[in-house]
Design a protein that fits this description.
This protein has about 325 residues and is α/β, with parallel strands linked by helices. It folds into two domains: about 180 residues, Rossmann fold (3-Layer(aba) Sandwich), CATH 3.40.50; about 110 residues, Rossmann fold (3-Layer(aba) Sandwich). Helices cover about 45% and strands about 20% of the residues. The chain is built from eleven helices and eleven strands. Strand 10 and strand 11 form a beta hairpin. Helix 6 runs parallel beside helix 11 and helix 7 crosses helix 8. The radius of gyration is 22 Å and the shape is elongated. About 50% of the residues are buried. Bound molecules: 6-O-phosphono-beta-D-fructofuranose (F6P). 6-O-phosphono-beta-D-fructofuranose (F6P) binds next to loops.
């Protein structure tokens, strides 16, 4: 697009491993194609504060392997108002920003959509450990977070085996159970409880544990998505009902950090480069999406209307494999 000379890039919402690789790809691809690239610190909050700087090829050196986001991030309350969006637009004009690339979750995409409705061309790159964006099967950081949880599960299993205990593990995901479901499969859980599925504690947790014990199992893993919560109460209930010593682990923010996996780095690099190419080709107000094994893009308004569901095949598979 000839009228775009300067691209702004920001990361917003919860940080996710791989965001740095995406920023690096935006900056280097942007400069390769002759654009000025401006970095905006601390998401929309930084945009409102004019916390904006010129990026060079060297600005993104030595960041591809780092977790978090070196641009930093924030959740902005002011930006969520009509006046906040107007102010953000006027600041983009002051800095000569002709288009914006936003890396974040669906809250960040809604912010980008609001900017696009005021005439600023935007591209969204999906970045959140939760993988809860409906328009894409994959979000940057999801792979690293799953591997971090898996590492924790392997450690927990060692001690659960040694003491013949049951372990209850609460994992992140906000209102979605994608991390929980995937690590239940990869960690060999007896039960997984997801916000997307109604559940009955006796049927879905106690029964599989007792049945497993009758078949000779000696230790057990129950994965709870944070959207369900209550891991400590569930732990007490399991111990009362089964007599099996049970311990709870709430993994927390450890799941958000760490060096990104190869998969997250490669996908983030591809998505960052693609965002710049979309602008170059005149495709604006799109979000990048990974579907059926390929990267594609979709209109931001359409993307935000979509609803994400849980992978039913994986859910059923876990029940069989837990036998
Ligand atoms: O969206 C990423 C995420 O880590 C969620 O899994 C979690 O619910 C939330 O962010 C926690 O947010 P905060 O770091 O603001 O407490």
């Amino acid at each position: 697009m000839d009228n775009i000379k300067t691209i702004g890039v920001l990361t917003s919402g919860g940080d996710a491993p791989g965001m740095n690789a995406a920023v690096r790809a935006v900056v280097r691809t942007g400069i390769y194609y002759g654009y000025n690239v401006l970095g905006i610190r601390k998401g929309y909050e930084g945009l409102l504060n004019g916390d904006i700087f010129k990026m060079t090829l060297r600005s993104v050196g030595d960041i591809i392997h780092r977790g978090g986001t070196f641009l930093q991030t924030a959740r902005s309350y002011e930006f969520n108002t009509e006046a906040g969006v107007e102010k953000a637009i006027s600041i983009t004009r002051v800095f000569g920003i002709d288009a914006m690339i936003v890396i974040g979750g669906d809250g960040s995409f809604r912010g980008a959509r609001d900017l696009s409705r005021k005439g600023l061309p935007v591209i969204g790159i999906p970045g959140t450990i939760d993988n809860d964006i409906a328009s894409t099967e994959y979000t940057i950081g999801f792979d690293t977070a799953k591997n971090t949880v898996q590492d924790a599960i392997d450690k927990i299993r060692d001690t659960a085996y040694s003491h013949e205990r049951c372990s209850v593990l609460e994992v992140m995901g906000r209102k979605a159970g994608h991390i929980a479901l995937n690590v239940a499969i990869s960690g060999g859980a007896e039960a997984v409880i997801l916000p997307e599925k109604e559940f009955d504690i006796d049927r879905d947790i106690i029964r599989p544990i007792i049945d497993g014990r009758n078949r000779g199992k000696k230790h057990y893993l129950v994965v709870i998505a944070e959207g369900i919560g209550g891991a400590v109460d569930i732990t007490k209930y399991i111990e009362e009902k089964t007599g099996i010593m049970t311990r709870a682990t709430i993994l927390g923010h450890i799941q958000r950090g760490g060096s990104p996996t190869v998969y997250d780095r490669v996908m983030a690099s591809r998505m960052g480069a693609m965002a710049v190419k979309l602008l170059k080709d005149g495709c604006i107000n799109r979000v990048i999406s990974f579907r059926q094994g390929a990267l594609t893009d979709i209109d931001i308004e359409e993307a935000l209307k979509m609803k994400k569901t849980i992978d039913e095949d994986l859910y059923e598979l876990n029940k069989i494999l837990a036998l």
